[in-house]
Every structure is written in structure tokens, then in C-alpha cells.
Design a protein that fits this description.
- Residues 61-249 form the ABC transmembrane type-1 domain.
- With 263 residues, the chain is an all-alpha fold.
- The chain contains 10 helices and no strands.
- Helix 6 packs antiparallel against helix 8 and helix 9 packs antiparallel against helix 10 (229-256).
Length: 263
């Protein structure tokens, strides 16, 4: 199943990279009669403005993946950095960083991201930053837990005894050994970020000049009973990629934890 997920995600990446080249078009252009059913004129039908749903999905793939991967990388960078520092140094530093983490943890991430975007801008960079600064707490706690466990092991003590500096201990000794559970969490984070991006787009809180799957659903939601295809096909795209990423995460979990297979 993990291999199937990897193949499907690879297809989405291919569509995001080369779809606009293979199907050159304007996703906002009216190309058919509004609310046309799926058929030869428009493979997945058209929405209430006569825009081709298939072309919209093709052109919405790249922004969705770019936002998801970039926001995830930033989330991971923030979470791992704070978690590593807290877990390695402990004491007052740990207490302060964990109180900050708890503060962000009690705030609903999606609502917090909505406020940031609404206050500042719907630009894609702001959307990425809004998602990143509101969703890093899980990675921080996981990293801290791994560091607290690993820093007491013999090989870390040996490296410290021969004079290894703190930065080297963190980056070269402890972090590589803490990566297996983090890799699984990072993989699943991509899927969660796609859902957050889709929610923001659905609410109209992303760049109006950029087509995304969530935006397609949001724009057509009032016409669901008249044109189910304009909502269903973008929704299926979101469901598929999130499900496939989850399958990859399960595969990685089995690979890193072979004792859990079959349970």
C-alpha cells in the first residue's frame, strides 16, 4: 500500500510540474456553457462560470503541492529547532520553550492561520508563513521527547567526554538518531498541511489569482446540487493525495518499527 501511495503522489507531482505544459490554458477562462456536465466538451464538466473543472484541477495541483511542501519544511524547521534546544539543554530553557509551545498549542491552528492571513495578506507567502507558525508544536514536542531519551545514551556521553561541542552533539550525534519518528511525522504533516491550505482556499483566504483545489470547492459550493462535479472532483483530488501520503507514512512506520507489522 505504501508503494501505491508513493506512485500516486509521484503522479500528482508529475501533474503539478508538467500539467500546465501538457495542457496550456487559463484555468479562469470561460470555455464551456456554465454548469455543463462532464463530457467531450469538458472532461470533468464546467462550473457556474463555465470554467473547465479538469483544467482547474491540473493548474491547482502545483500551488497546492508548493504550499504544502514549503509550509511543512518551515514547520519542521521551527519545531525541530525548538524541540532540540529544549530537550538538549533542559532546565530553564526547556521550561520557557515548552510554555511557548503550550501557548501555541491551545490556539486552534486553522483559526489562528485565518486571522494571520485576514490581517496581513492573502499572498501565497503569507499563507505559507501562517500555516507554518501555527502548526509546529507537535514536531517540537516529538523532537524534545526524542532528545530527552537519546542524550542519556552511552555514545552521546562518550562524544561529550571527548570534547564534542553542543552544536555537534545536537546536529551530528543526537538528531540523526532521532529522525525515524520525525520522518513519519513529517510525512503525515504534508497531508495535514494540504487540508489546512484547502480550508483557507475554501474560505477565500488565498491569492485570488491562483487556482487551488480548495478554491474550486469554495467557489462552487452553492451549486453542488446543480453541478456536483464542480465540487466532487476537486474534493476527490484532495482526498486522494492526503490518503496516499498517509499510506506512505504507514509504510515508513512499518519500516522503522518492524515489530509493529501485522498488529
Amino acid at each position: 500500500m505504501a508503494l501505491l501511495g508513493l506512485i500516486m503522489v509521484s503522479i500528482f507531482i508529475f501533474v503539478g510540474l508538467f500539467g500546465p505544459i501538457i495542457f496550456p490554458a487559463d484555468p479562469f477562462e470561460m470555455v464551456a456553457v456554465p454548469l455543463s456536465e462532464p463530457g467531450a466538451g469538458a472532461l470533468f464538466g464546467s462550473d457556474y462560470m463555465g470554467r473547465d473543472v479538469f483544467i482547474g484541477i491540473i493548474y491547482g495541483t502545483r500551488p497546492t503541492l508548493v504550499i504544502a511542501t514549503t509550509a511543512t519544511l518551515m514547520t519542521v524547521l521551527i519545531g525541530i529547532t525548538l524541540g532540540a534546544v529544549a530537550g538538549f539543554y533542559g532546565g530553564m530553557i526547556d521550561n520557557v520553550l515548552m510554555r511557548i509551545t503550550e501557548f501555541f498549542q491551545v490556539l486552534p491552528p486553522l483559526v489562528f492561520a485565518m486571522v494571520i492571513v485576514a490581517v496581513f495578506s492573502t499572498d501565497i507567502v503569507v499563507v505559507i508563513l501562517a500555516i507554518a507558525v501555527t502548526t509546529w508544536t507537535a514536531e517540537a514536542r516529538l523532537t524534545r521527547a526524542e532528545f530527552l531519551k537519546i542524550k542519556e545514551r552511552e555514545y552521546v556521553m562518550s562524544a561529550r567526554a571527548i570534547g564534542a561541542r553542543n552544536f555537534r552533539l545536537i546536529a551530528r550525534v543526537i538528531l540523526p538518531n532521532a529522525m525515524p519518528p520525525l520522518v513519519i511525522a513529517i510525512t503525515l504533516r504534508v497531508g495535514i498541511t494540504i487540508i489546512y491550505e484547502a480550508a483557507l482556499s475554501f474560505l477565500g483566504l488565498t491569492d485570488p489569482d491562483v487556482m487551488t483545489w480548495g478554491k474550486m470547492i469554495g467557489l462552487s459550493r452553492d451549486f453542488f446540487f446543480d453541478a456536483w462535479w464542480s465540487v466532487t472532483f476537486p474534493g476527490v483530488a484532495i482526498l486522494l493525495i492526503v490518503l496516499c501520503i498517509a499510506l506512505i507514512g504507514d509504510g515508513l512506520n512499518d519500516a522503522f518499527n518492524p515489530k509493529l507489522r501485522g498488529r
